[in-house]
Amino acid sequence: MVVADKTTLQQYLQKFFGFDTFKGQQEEIISSLLAKKDTFVIMPTGGGKSLCYQLPALVSEGTAIIISPLIALMKNQVDALRNFGNEDGIAHFLNSSLTKPEIAKVKKDITDGKTKLLYVAPESLTKQENVIFFNEIKISFFAIDEAHCISEWGHDFRPEYRRIRTIIEEIGTVPIIALTATATPKVQQDIQKNLGMTDANVYKSSFNRGNLYYEVRPKQNVIKEIIKYVKTQHGKSGIIYCLSRKKVEELAETLRVNGVKAQAYHAGLEAKERAHTQDAFLMEDIDVIVATIAFGMGIDKPDVRFVIHHDIPKSLEGYYQETGRGGRDGGEGNCITFYSHDDIVKLEKFMKGKPVAEQEIGKQLLHETVSYAETSSCRRKFLLHYFGEEFDEAGCGGMCDNCRNPKQKFEAMEDVELVLEAIEDIKEKFKTKDVINVLLGTVTATVKSYKHNDLECFGKGAEDDKNEKYWNAVIRQALVSGLLSKDIENYGLLKLTKEGKSFMNKPYSIMVTKDHDYEGTETDDDEGSGGGNKGGSGADAVLFSALKDLLKQTAHKLKLPPYVIFQELSLEEMAIQYPIKMDELVNITGVGQGKAQKFGKPFLDLIAKYVEENEIDRPLDMVVKSIVNKSGLKVYIIQSIDRKLPLDDIASAKGIGLSDLISEIESIVSSGTKVNIGYYINEILDEDKQQEAMLYFKESDSDSVQEALKELGEEEYSEDEIRLLRIKFMSEFGN
Questions:
Q1: DSSP E strands: which ranges in 84-211?
Q2: How far apart are the C-alpha atoms of 591 and 577, rounded to whole Å?
Q3: Are the CB atoms for 261 and 277 separated by under 8 Å?
Q4: How far is CA 587 from the centre of its chain?
Q5: What pLDDT, in 10s, does the model give residues 5-64?
Q6: Is the pLDDT of residue 298 over 70?
Q7: Alpha-carbon distance 75 to 57, whole Å?
Q8: CB neighbourhood size of 145 (10 A)
Q9: CATH number of 212-352+375-389
Q10: Can 413-509 and 632-734 be said to share one CATH topology?
Q11: 417-470, pLDDT tens digit by residue?
């Protein structure tokens, strides 16, 4: 391995990468590695980590082995490196995507001395045939990218990373460089210990990305809000993260029908399709990628202008890394997250069934994410504190929603004092939740068994306006002010720091902001609709009344019950959304294409006239078209009915009862889809009975099954038969 002076390094930088100067600590890191020292790099996304091992590899004798967790990352970096020189063999990857002849070609290029960088997955590194091969070649150093994968406390723990050190020792003693974009002090310690590099030179850059704007919004009508936002970013590149593959595909399709160039990206897609989408994003053939968390690691696109989280991530490391994809060129980068406490409940459910220790770690990481989402203090300060970095919130400069629109602060000196006293009284052996239970005087199993209810501080914080949320905010402020620390090893036990003990002896002013309240937010809007309030509150009462009158007139004219034309739920939504065009009406809950065409025109005319006369500012002026969202079960039911399969067989095939199947068909029909179940009804009811029931539904203003049974005779019809006849009536006359 060469040791180069400063001038030589800059010449190499210019020669290989075309840059005149190094960024941040790159030069010291490269010098450390070239001097054969183990080197540990913690550098935020966009800081230039890759260059820290690429340049030393290019100037060193032998081949550098780069251990990387993602095939997408390997391909992206290998392509980029090949562009720097004329020789394709300069960089290769070795992973499960290669054929035997391709593997042979890679090994030949390495043996011939052409290859300077070889990217391998940890699974490939541990294969015995590869270990034998690596023992036969000259290795310049090992680079372990995404090193946080080693730690159970990291946001992307991978057990196979734990074996890396053993394999390296088997291959021979060469320097190691470990790199990560996210590492709390605990994760940093874990990485160094596991890789046996506690004496490494450590280079930690600031985690502050000053050009990124952080915002958390309540999760209401989220699909509509995302589309509205993306439409304002025309021609700009963005990434939208969702937790599930299903949501990724739905959202990507909804964006496309609304004129946005978007594609889905997740691990369930074919490798070829993922690579194509990735390339299209880099080449700007598409503007938006909708992805699960797997997307983005190693994607070197500097001008991503917005990163949206449809769902809150399960850890702050994950959040930081994903938002870090934005504005890597130092330009605009807007990070918008939609948050609902329901999402947290969902994430907690995912943890069930995992080992207890893993669940505890997961819960604590999740608690930190909740704290970040709900805090009303500077988000940047909170985030940097989490990564062990001090930050004066005045430096945020309005680059988070809480600093841009600050809430009123209140003096909390006495309350902070009370918190510290309570933590001292319970011997610094409990978590935030337990401390709050003591302050509020809540008797729990823990409180009883440790006799906390006998303490003087028990219930001292139970004032009218001081609830769990309030005390959470106070404890959080004490943490970021350095008065408390969390013992991560012991699942987040709260401890007094030296500064905290000094504060208790001599208290001083501490200002706290009340947390945001995200209770009651929706986890998502109804995909079949254009969003909006479904409950009637918020509906324009005057318009609703006029629509109801029109519905009665229309029903009378067509000699149909009103509910067959439009249900009240649909009218309420019309009185919120003010649709005036056919494609807007189609998006109203329970309408659909058929009903809109059949009954919609007079309703649209009435709404248009009302909007004009009252100068209404319509929420639908930015129309959000929705995709027809049918679950796999609904599609199966519709297709089976089209094939005239007996309903009992359809129910049996899907492992549900006939009554549940009828509920699904009712749901399909009420949303405006026509189904023909006459073939089945003909098998179970004679024509006279059918005509009698159809006549009843035509003349009755009620769609109640119980009323129909009472009128038609419970001894004559079963409840399921009445429901099936009502479906037939609704489908024939309404859809």
A1: 91-94, 117-120, 139-144, 176-180, 201-204
A2: 13
A3: no
A4: 25
A5: 667 888 888 888 888 889 889 999 999 999 999 999 998 866 788 899 999 999 999 999
A6: no
A7: 17
A8: 25
A9: 3.40.50.300
A10: yes
A11: 999 999 999 999 998 989 999 999 999 988 998 999 999 999 999 987 888 888
Report the side by side order of strands in the sheet with 288-291.
212-218, 333-339, 304-309, 237-241, 288-291, 262-265
Cα distance between residue 306 and residue 214, in whole Å: 10
Per-residue tokens: 378? 């500077």
Domain ranges in the chain are 6-204, 212-352+375-389, 413-509, 541-621, 632-734
Q: What is the chain's percent helix, strand, coil content, to nearest 5? A: 50, 10, 35
Pick the CATH number of 541-621 from 1.10.150.80, 3.30.559.30, 2.60.120.10, 3.40.190.150: 1.10.150.80
Task: Report domain 6-204's class.
Answer: alpha beta
Instruction: List the one residue out of 631, 671, 627, 637 whose CA is nearest residue 246.
Output: 631
For 632-734, give the CATH class: mainly alpha
Q: Is the pLDDT at 537 greater than 70, yes or no?
A: no
Six token digits for residue 34: 């070239």
Given a contact cutoff of 8 angstroms between Cβ atoms, the answer to whether 672 and 595 are in contact is: yes
pLDDT digits (tens, 9 = 90+) for 679-711: 998 888 888 888 888 888 887 777 788 888 888
Which amino acid, one-letter code, is at 663? S
CA distance 385 to 336: 20
So what's the pLDDT on residue 533? 33
Architecture of domain 413-509: Orthogonal Bundle (1.10)
Q: What is the DSSP string of 281-321?
A: HHTTS-SEEEE-TTTTTT---TTEEEEEESS--SSHHHHHH
